[in-house]
Amino acid sequence: MQDRSDDSVVEKMNADGNAVAKANDQTILCHVGRETDAHYGAVNTPVYHASTILFPTLAAHDAKQDARVRYGRRGTPTQFSLEDAVSALEGAAGTVLTPSGAMAISTALLAFARAGAHYLIPDNVYGPCRHCCTEILKPLGVDVTYYDPAIGAGIADLMTPATRLIWMEAPGSQTFEMCDIGAIARVARERDVITVIDNTWAAGFYLKPLALGIDISLQAGTKYLSGHSDVMMGTLACASNIFPRIKDFAQRLGVCVGPDDAYLVNRGMRTLAVRMRQHNESAFQIALWLQSRPEVLKVLHPALPDDPGHFIWKEYFTGASGLFGFILKPVERSCLAKMLDDMKYFGMGASWGGYESLLIPTNPAPLRTATAWRPEGQSMRIHVGLEDTADLIADLEAGFERLAAAERKLANSMRRTL
Predict the structure, then answer these.
(1) 10-269 belongs to CATH 3.40.640.10
(2) Cβ(113)–Cβ(142) under 8 Å?
(3) Alpha helix segments (H runs only) across 225-295
(4) pLDDT tens per residue, range 374-391
(5) The one catalytic residue among 208, 223, 247, 275
(6) Where do the structural domains in the chain lie, given as residue ranges?
(7) Is 272-417 a domain of CATH 3.40.1360.10?
(8) Which residues get modified to N6-(pyridoxal phosphate)lysine (predicted)?
(9) Which residue among 126, 147, 206, 263 is the active-site one?
């Protein structure tokens, strides 16, 4: 599948506010946020462990509100370097860091919450977002309506004078429907409604929501930005009219991230471009292979030409990540266990976006309220990591063989009992 990530080349700013030469994201990610002269020539911004920041004079202390580094909770050069890198990648006026993707979600939702406000949330939204709406927002008096992700400009029909925020997730992280980002953004702008999109799947690399008029591009930096499955992080990349509010709200909540975590995610971002291209290529190959398998009813990957969301994906995205889904023919749980328990390269675990491949069964149905999820088989979520594609296909093939053997054994056992 063609990667179009270099199609858009824009001028970015470094940490000093100076223009970086016009370049594509791969080059920008290697250089933005680095101030080597300020750190004795070190290529990477060091880890600053700090709470108290000392000022040499009373005058400096009195003027500390103007100092970028003034208290550990408000950030040090370690956190600032990551904020600058994310802002450059997303084309944002500024970025707020949070200790996890879930915290980024709750921060964005709560920042605009008022009793009587109305939010529009897609029915395929990530579980913690729905839980925040149900368990935190509703008791605060926020009315939430869940909408069909395919609604497009029809979302105008669900809006009320109290509508304050529209959430998007493209694609859904379990069912992979696409929403028409541009159409929803246009409707929202006409009515002065805040828009937020969960951009974790595309990592800010294959989708630029702020250029489409979205106010906040949210990511679980735990996933592709980090890329190594060893750190928790959330990012809120904001448009200029929104950034001061999100930053102030997060500060008042006491939201901050540890410098070691910021360092790890910043280091991971330096290789984001090459990792995303490999995820893109390998996942597409495996998606095509899965389409040919008799055990598979359907593959859920928006980059596939026959996927229902393909044309929307092609309009807004320049590539795809390593995460997608597929539907197995109906299968007994014990037989599925035979397939999954002995996978050599595919692990079973929450999260995704790391260098390693993952494969888990899913059941999105209980999280749906506005639409029905009827896959007619066992839904699966796969994350294709950075291993050799041939090795991953061989691992899946061996798993399907174990599945078939288990099903034959079960069928024979059932016949003997009749």
Answers:
(1) yes
(2) yes
(3) 243-253, 259-269, 272-291
(4) 999 999 999 999 999 999
(5) 223
(6) 10-269, 272-417
(7) no
(8) 223
(9) 126
